Amino acid sequence: MSQLVSLVRDGNVALIVIDNPPVNALSSAVRAGILECFRAARDDAQVAAIVFLGAGRTFVAGADITEFGKPPQPPVLIDVIAEIDQSPKPTVAAMHGTPLGGGFEVTLACHFRVAAPGTRVGLPEIKLGLFPAAGGTQRLPRLVGMDKAAAMILSGEQMPAEEALEIGLIDEIVAGDLRAGAVAFAKRVVAEKRPLRRVSELDDKIAPLRADPARFDEIMASHMKRGRGLDAPKAVVESMRQTLTLDVEEASRNDRDTFVRLIPGEQSRGQRHIFFAEREAAKVPGVSKDVKARAVRRAAVIGAGTMGGGIAMCFANAGIPVTVVETSGEALKRGLDTVAKNYKTSVTRGSLTAEEMERRIGLMSGATDMDAVKDADLVIEAVFEEMDIKRQIFGALDRITGPDAVLATNTSYLDVNAIARETQRPASVLGMHFFSPANVMRLLEVVRGERTSPEALATAMAVGRRLGKVPVVVGVCHGFVGNRMLRARSIEAERLLIEGALPQEVDGALTEFGFPMGPFAMGDLAGLDVSWRMRKAQGTRAEIADALCEAGRFGQKTGKGFYLYEAGARTGKPDPEVEAMIVGVSKRLGVTRRPIGRQEILERLVYPMVNEGARILEEGIATRPGDIDVIWIYGYGFPAWRGGPMFYADTVGLKTICERLSALATASGDKRHEPAALLQRLAAEGRGFASLDEKKSA
Ligand code: COA
């Protein structure tokens, strides 16, 4: 038998144990091993029942993603699953950890499923631009009904075992030793001569839809909100529709063909790139696996404004006690009241229980005296962007906190090294840059200062993960990675307005590209006054945004910004007043306005970002192109299925991007548009950014 899959006996029960660390992915050798062991057990007269079990931390967590894009090796998964499906002897899947994707599809071909407490099952293929084509779309609706199956497959979300038990997806939760429990379960099935429930033959949940196909479309439409226009969700719907007309075997063959077509598609390649890039980002140069993160038992946040409150919520949500410090009792109360209001909204919406809200609020304490942070293992400063204030705070924190405490600033732009120099412990100082709303956005830029120690970095990364964030290490520069690239885009967005475009045209080009929002709608949401104040402090101007602010149009909060917002509305309408204002600015600057097409808008917004990204790589501010992609997807809504800005640039071709940037530099006279040296070099060598990434799969 293969070393990765072994067959052992426990009385009349055969156990097929899959042992392919770290997550028991279904590589071709594992598939072959499963098939070989299954056949041996099936054909062994001494065996009355067969149990599938995963060794290590999880049952099989899916197909081996590194094999996608390579020539398929037999046996293919649907063939393995088809044989298990037809087993004449009872089959039991014993699940723990995260049985996902192809792993979970194997369990759906078994007659019975049992799980250890804490198991989370799911079909996450949609997140990789694919779909569960090894019978998942066929068997799941037969087992739990079309609505629940579509919800699970189209969201890709995991489901806890307790819920899976409730909806009949699993048969039993096994407390105690899973292997012993599963064997006992199998023996009971044999002893009681329980009828074998073959999922592929169930029809009671499908029959009503066959009589009412319009209901099928309704169900699908209700779960398709996020994925409209994308290949994989479309494939899911067409695949699931087959349940109405075809048997599992035949439908699975069609599914396999569709799956094979999706793999080389740009959408799936982009999403797979992000899967691996996110995991690569966890590997920080200079921070080896042996570096120990310091324990963070208590945290503190300085500042109870929007950011401070949101960051404090992250800690409370993760079960870490947190102290929030403000300068006055009034500001503190305002901040904590906002936090309580946010939690109440979640309770009203049903996404949080009242008890859980109380527990989280109970983990937060407030203070107006900085001494209150003296026991914190990690302090995050989140006051406004003024260097002098930050310096004072870090001086004080250095005196007050214990020698091992890590001190972080949530600054978006300021020099972390200068802040660190205010302390006697620059090695324990770094940036932890959250994105607004901090309790929602998953990106965390961890800013490494020139003196930051590996331990401090490891601590920030580990805490970031505990908070459910995707932490990415970046270096010190104005705006770090995300905001520095955003600035390149913002400058060009304003230029487009001056040259002839309107806000809705610029935003429209980006939403059509896949962003949830364009730059002007985003500005209105965030508040235009924030960057206005910053520009004034720096002595710079943005003609149109400044004109709007001077007219008191700060965005959604004043009901007017680049757009007009009717009372309570979150989406704005084009405003003729703004158009007149823009036309006026063009005139004042002596610019003859011209119509600007979608493609030009898109290129001028995205290519300068790519150029800035290339400079960021040259300067070593980001470690890998993939890190930049992860930052833009989790922090700025870059469409995941386009793989992030650097991956997208590769799909366009760096030569094309260089040419367009050079043309833009000439036309605008702006030297920043000259292609970065790295971009030029890669383009000349016919390479892409991917050639710089240490990654497993393209
Ligand atoms: N194929 C190949 N490699 C995989 C894999 C898969 N299906 N799932 C995980 N891995 C690798 C990761 O790349 C990582 O490798 P690295 O340590 O070299 O970076 C390692 O296994 C551990 O994964 P990681 O995500 O860091 O561990 P985790 O405990 O946080 O999460 C999972 C485990 C299984 C929940 C998560 O990896 C996951 O969601 N995997 C994808 C599952 C999936 O989409 N399956 C369907 C495929 S069609």
Give structural notes.
The chain is α/β, with parallel strands linked by helices and 698 residues long. The chain has five domains: 1-122 and 158-197, 2-enoyl-CoA Hydratase, Chain A, domain 1; 124-156 and 206-264, no CATH class; 299-474, Rossmann fold (3-Layer(aba) Sandwich); 501-588, N-(1-d-carboxylethyl)-l-norvaline Dehydrogenase, domain 2 (Orthogonal Bundle); 602-697, N-(1-d-carboxylethyl)-l-norvaline Dehydrogenase, domain 2, CATH 1.10.1040.50. Helix content is 48%, strand content 11%. It is built from 29 helices and 18 strands. It has an eight-stranded mixed sheet with strand order 11-10-9-12-13-14-15-16, sandwiched between helices. It has a six-stranded mixed sheet with strand order 1-2-3-4-5-8, sandwiched between helices. Strands 6-7 form a two-stranded antiparallel ribbon. β15, α18 and β16 (470-475) form a beta-alpha-beta unit. The longest helix has 21 residues, at 329-349. The chain is globular. The chain starts with a strand and ends in a 14-residue tail after the last helix. The model has no long low-confidence stretch (mean pLDDT 96).
